[in-house]
Amino acid sequence: MGVFQCTNQLIGFVGSFSEFYRHSLFIESFREVQKYNVQIAEDTTKESFIRLQKHIDFDNVSFHYKGSEYLAVNNVTFRLNRGEKIALVGHNGAGKTTLVKLLLRFYDVTSGAIRFDDKNIKD
User: Do 36 and 106 contact (CB within 8 A), yes or no?
Assistant: First the structure.
């Protein structure tokens, strides 16, 4: 009986190392975000903060990361109306986080446009 308990404890202990490793991958991603340097000029005047009145449009938005030959997002089109809630669902690497980064202007789109109440967010 004691041998089985000891074996189970040992298996649990060894298994925790894989969990530590899995969590360390998330920590590394968090550290990368903290080191990120904004590449877009920032306008922090009061006039630059506009409240959404109607909708946000993604119009044939495509994007690829610098140094990559593959599109992270390819011809995405949708409208998000004011007050509406959506969920971005997809496999790892499908472009969910990239869409949010584009909306927040961490990056500019490669092609297409993102419009905030019919005004291009680049403007």
Answer: yes
What is the per-residue pLDDT across 55-75, written as a single tens digit (0 to 9) for each? 999 999 999 988 888 899 999
d(CA 62, CA 39): 18
Half-sphere exposure of 18 (CA within 13 A, CB side): 4
Q: d(Cα 35, Cα 69) in Å, to the nearest integer?
A: 24
Query: Using CA atoms, how far apart are residues 16 and 103, in angstroms rounded to an integer?
Result: 37
> Region 24-50: what's the mean pLDDT?
68
pLDDT digits (tens, 9 = 90+) for 77-109: 999 998 888 888 988 888 899 999 999 888 899
Within 26-110, strands assigned E span 55-63, 73-81
Q: In whole angstroms, give the CA distance from residue 70 to residue 80.
A: 26
Please name which of 105, 104, 87 lies closest in space to residue 96, comparing C-alpha atoms. Answer: 87
State how far the alpha carbon of 15 is from the alpha carbons of 9, 25, 39, in Å.
10, 16, 41
